[in-house]
Amino acid sequence: MFASVVWRYFFNLPFSWAEQFTGWTFVWLTYLGAAVAYRRGSHIGVDVVVKKLPDSIRFIVSIVMDLSIGCFLLVFIYYGFVITITTFGQAYGAFELPPSYMYAAGPVSGFLMFLCMIEGLINRFVDFQNTRKGA
Fold first, then answer.
1. Per-residue confidence at 106, pLDDT binned at 50, 70, 90?
2. Structure confidence by residue, pLDDT tens digits, 59-96
3. Is 21 among the domain residues?
4. Is residue 125 included in any domain, yes or no?
5. Max mean pLDDT range (56-60, 78-82, 97-101)
6. Cα(75)–Cα(101) distance, rounded to whole angstroms?
7. Residue 51 burial (C-beta neighbours within 10 Å; 0-12, 13-18, 19+)
């Protein structure tokens, strides 16, 4: 985008594709960044009450939360896929590419988050079993 501004200012020749490229890159980075944040556990959460619960109840609450997130992600992936497929035949902007290339960021990141949710569930069960064996 910076190069486009410089080119337009000095040479009066703006890049017609720069805005679209920047927008699509922003969308993909945002969605993939959300998947990375979910994997790292960096998402916003209020766990003041949950931390005060006994381990067994905290385990159950975390499982219910993970399964709820998983259900949401399945719906998100499904409808993201539907929108991606629906818009595949269209042409958009300077690239003349289908907007489905941009919309695909949603289901792709949703799938990555779903995989991370499954990994988190497995780790919770393993940790809970190890904690019970050690107690």
1. very high
2. 899 899 999 999 999 999 999 999 999 998 888 777 78
3. no
4. yes
5. 78-82
6. 20
7. exposed
Candidates 79, 69, 67; CA nearest to 35 is 69
Tens of pLDDT, residue by residue over 3-30, are 777 777 888 877 778 888 888 999 999 9
How many domains, the chain?
1
What are 64's two structure tokens? 């219910």
Q: Write the burial class of residue 117 (CB in 10 Å: 0-12 exposed, 13-18 middle, 19+ buried).
A: buried
- What is the residue range of 65's domain? 34-134
Is 15 inside a domain boundary? Answer: no
Q: Is 106 exposed, middle or buried (0-12, 13-18, 19+ CB in 10 A)?
A: buried
With respect to residue 13, please indicate whether it lies within any of the assigned structural domains. no
